[in-house]
């Protein structure tokens, strides 16, 4: 009888596990994007959040707790589901199908009272260790560029470069004259520790390429700082592409886009910058 009871329990456990396994298979079988997501409403985090603030000391957990803690098990499974879905094939094919345009930008910036938050974090810049992102926001409208790959960086570059101008390097001060209350912030998130190691080795070359006025606004952060659920909330979960966010002084996402720029999107971005600069100045009067 005991053998029968154990066997029945084992079968029952497998049946209970089946729905989650089915969900994982379902995620893995989703086809690559065929066209960009259309952004019609604000997106981001529901509240301001510091990403790399430890909510608990994982080192204090014993092996049993690490293996069987319900929340940790759920987190591991969710991460696995994400990695299965976001295979190199899925991401590269989605990038190709959409020409990097994972989502299209809204036609104007979001209202302050409707906008959602960009996450806060602490990371290393080209000149500072443990720089807090939110500390850069108080006096400027920030154009935040996120990328993890060379293709992503090239996408993000197209919003600031053309045949005659490069506002990221030699013409940055000209950009500052036109938008005196705005700044450009880079967040370089290497895909894994090995790529992160090579990026660190290349910091000297990066300093030469980035205008000196932006060295304290160029972050290099490990991928673990931006977990998959945050990337999904920011719609930047395809590592092949690059992303642009206009973030206000409160850390709210007021406008965003992805992929390669076109002339119309550049006009909208610059118009949004002007509008948000005026909004900021009016709020300080």
From TrEMBL:
GO terms for biological process: mitochondrial proton-transporting ATP synthase complex assembly. Pfam families: ATP-synt_10. This is Mitochondrial ATPase complex subunit ATP10. One of its GO terms (cellular component) is mitochondrial inner membrane.
């Amino acid at each position: 009888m005991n053998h029968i009871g154990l066997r029945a329990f084992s079968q029952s456990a497998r049946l209970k596990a089946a729905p989650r396994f089915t969900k994982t298979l379902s995620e893995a079988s989703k086809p690559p994007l065929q066209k960009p997501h259309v952004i019609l409403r604000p997106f981001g985090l529901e509240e301001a959040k510091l990403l790399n603030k430890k909510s608990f000391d994982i080192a204090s957990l014993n092996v049993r707790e690490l293996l069987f803690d319900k929340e940790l098990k759920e987190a591991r499974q969710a991460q696995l589901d994400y990695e299965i879905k976001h295979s190199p094939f899925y991401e590269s094919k989605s990038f190709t199908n959409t020409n990097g345009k994972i989502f299209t930008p809204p036609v104007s910036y979001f209202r302050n009272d409707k906008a959602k938050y960009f996450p806060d974090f602490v990371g290393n810049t080209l000149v500072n260790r443990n720089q807090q992102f939110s500390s850069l926001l108080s006096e400027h409208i920030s154009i935040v560029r996120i990328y993890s790959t060379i293709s992503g960086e090239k996408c993000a570059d197209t919003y600031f470069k053309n045949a005659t101008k490069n506002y990221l390097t030699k013409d940055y001060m000209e950009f500052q004259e036109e938008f005196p209350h705005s700044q450009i912030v880079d967040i370089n998130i290497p895909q894994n520790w090995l790529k992160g190691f090579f990026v660190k080795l290349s910091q000297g070359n990066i300093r030469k390429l980035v205008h000196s006025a932006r060295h304290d606004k160029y972050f290099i952060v490990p991928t673990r700082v931006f977990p998959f659920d945050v990337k999904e909330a920011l719609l930047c979960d395809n590592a092949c592409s690059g992303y642009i966010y206009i973030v206000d002084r409160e850390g709210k996402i007021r406008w965003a886009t992805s992929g390669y720029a076109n002339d119309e999107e550049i006009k909208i971005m610059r118009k949004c910058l002007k509008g948000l600069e005026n909004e900021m100045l009016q709020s300080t009067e």
